[in-house]
Amino acid sequence: MATNFFFQAKKILRQHNPSSFATKTERFKTVRLVDKQLLELGYRGLELKALKPKHIDALLQKWQSDGLSLGTVKNRMTHIRWLAEKIGKKGIVPASNAALGIEKRIYVTNENKGKTLSQKQLNSITDQHVKMSLKLQVAFGLRREEAMKIQPEKADRGDHLVLDASWCKGGRDRTIPILNEAQRELLEEAKALAHGRSLIPVQRMYVEQMKRYENTCIKIGLEGAHGLRHSYAHQRYFELTGIECPAVSGVSVRELSAELQIADKEARAIITRELGHGRLQVTATYLGS
pLDDT tens across 95-106, in order? Predict the structure, then answer.
């Protein structure tokens, strides 16, 4: 049976949630988890507008004692901040993670997380729309949601793709260059398959196609499909600088010549825009430092 807290929070989510499907899903999961864990912590009969700093502190202590990663804790706090703001109680959650005692996340590990997609794996995929989405991820560094929602006919602008904000994480549109014939041929194949629509078949909802995508990745041994974006970033770095990025080569930026350090900085700015990120620090998780 749903609690008042959960019922009221769900109403807020429906009324004020313009973000991407992935963000909506994660917010819903966080709200449901918060409701469940507050009950476990003894806070029964809680109304949403009665949420207080003590509830936030209790949740945070539980998550830290559970050994959750900094990234997971920060993501959950982001969703709680959003909810607190919508109910007019922004002050119950400090704007700074440091004020909550959450350490600064270390983004860069210089670990190569790139993934490739073999012809054998592609040949085993029966869903042609999922197969095309994965191929577009390889060729253009798309996120999985973008690779399904993209309308190839609309995105194609000759020498570049324009991804509509409604397809992208955070509601930010972006431009990706079309640099070679292989990309052009793949895009023409995608347009022929989509028939002026997206790469979600007309008879399916997005959530259904996402499930097919996830099951396909598991079946072909590509659980870390986000690694395809890493490989795209690695390839673009090599094209822009003439050298492998630190995540691949193991050579840190500070070991490069002054000339290559300038090229590194310029390449990172370009790749950051192409990947749809707002900060160079985030792109460093792909490229190393």
Answer: 777 656 665 554
Topology classification of domain 4-100: DNA polymerase; domain 1 (1.10.150)
Task: Residue 247: name the closest of 106, 113, 107 by CA.
Answer: 113
Greatest Cα pair distance in the chain: 64
Enclosing H/E stretch for 149: helix 144-149
Q: How far is CA 10 from CA 90, 261, 271, in A?
A: 18, 49, 37
| In contact, 247 and 234? CB cutoff 8 Å | yes
Residue 176 bridge partners (DSSP): 161
Render pLDDT for 188-234 as a digit per residue (tens, 0 to 9): 999 999 999 999 999 999 889 998 998 999 999 997 788 999 999 99
The C-alpha atoms of residue 182 and residue 189 are separated, in whole angstroms, by 11
What does pTM read for this prediction? 0.68
Q: Where are the domains of the chain?
A: 4-100, 125-219, 229-287
The candidate with the shortest Cα–Cα distance to 204, out of 129, 274, 92, 99, is 129
Vertex 35 angle, CA 30 and 41, to 5°: 120
List phi, psi (to 5°) of 224.
-95, 60
For 7-35, how does the pLDDT look when each residue is reduced to its tens digit (9 = 90+)? 898 888 888 766 577 788 888 889 889 99
Q: Which residue has the tokens 């870390």?
A: 224
Contact 246, 135 (CB under 8 A): no
CA angle 135, 164, 114 (to 5 degrees): 35
Sequence-distant (6+) residues with CB within 8 A of 127 are 212, 216
Q: How far apart are CA 25 and CA 40, in angstroms?
A: 23
